[in-house]
Amino acid sequence: MIAGVCGGAGGPQFGGRQRTAERARAGAAAALRCRVLRLADRAVSWIRSSDLQILTHAGTVFTADSRVSAITGEAADDRTDDGPDDEGDDSWDDGWDDESDDVPDDQQADSDVIVEKGVETVHTLRIERLRPSDSGRYECQINTEPKMSLFFNLTVEDSAAAAAEVEVRALGGRVVRGVAGRAAALACEARYVPPAPPAPTALPPNLPPLRIHWRHAGHTVDTQSGEGGVSLESERWAGGARSRLTLGALARRHAGRWRCVVGAHSATLTLQVLPAADSDMEAMQRDQAVARVSSDAISLPLQSHPLLPLLLGMLLALHLCAPT
């Protein structure tokens, strides 16, 4: 997710084309590259989101982990040398943040302008000898006021994960309906599943945990972005994970497609936001229907009741036996 893309007229901003998802195997190296325009006298920091650890600042490493290094240089088209070392492995996602179907047209136009303006520098966070625990989100931050942040997702797969596939599915249906101003929840689940035959049918042990991210309108949902009413509940177990995203006060901007993403796998849900007036009208129609049914039941002809002859006979007998 991009928070505060522009730092004012002529100020720093993130480049319009960023590779925000990286996948690598355990033991290999990964490089997260953050493209910045017109940095001038500002500085770039890399922060690990899981524990808010500052890894690098202005090219200087601030962690005792010897596997971490920082590189700063002028921009170059590095699309061809970011992929995996194994040629012909088309199972690797190229990771480029190209979701044009999720990005509004006005934002795409802005990105085109961003690429053409100013001097662009690349600030690289490199991690050697990757471990599965290195998987997660990393923040590229420019020390403007307010701070500007761009988030990157790193997925580290070990040999066990390579022998399993990931299945992501929506919970509660792919279409969710909500009312403007009220809350709505989206939920999904991810599981490891054995690969198709002739591969082994049993899951290998020690699979890395699955981490679920939500995307909407081309951005990764960030519960720390300051938008009120957005909460995320996650549950993980061996071989699976479940995520529930709650939107506290629905607005028109929340309508549309939401993607539940785990690495290169995802499930799509559609959120429909109904105006509050339409919801109130539906409630009134239901109340009127219930009232009509109750009224019809009360106004049934008495002679149609099966116990009516018996009741009349008992009343007549009491009347005849009464003392005069």
Automatic annotation (TrEMBL):
Annotated Ig-like domain residues: 12-151, 181-270
Region of interest (Disordered), ranges: 73-112
GO CC terms: neuron projection membrane
Domain of life: Eukaryota
InterPro entries: Ig-like_dom, Ig-like_dom_sf, Ig-like_fold, Ig_sub, Ig_sub2, Zig-8
Composition bias, Acidic residues: 83-109
GO BP annotations listed: synapse organization
SUPFAM superfamilies assigned to the protein according to its UniProt record, in alphabetical order: Immunoglobulin
PANTHER family hit by this protein: DEFECTIVE PROBOSCIS EXTENSION RESPONSE 10, ISOFORM A-RELATED (PTHR23279:SF46), DEFECTIVE PROBOSCIS EXTENSION RESPONSE DPR -RELATED (PTHR23279)
UniProt name for this protein: Ig-like domain-containing protein
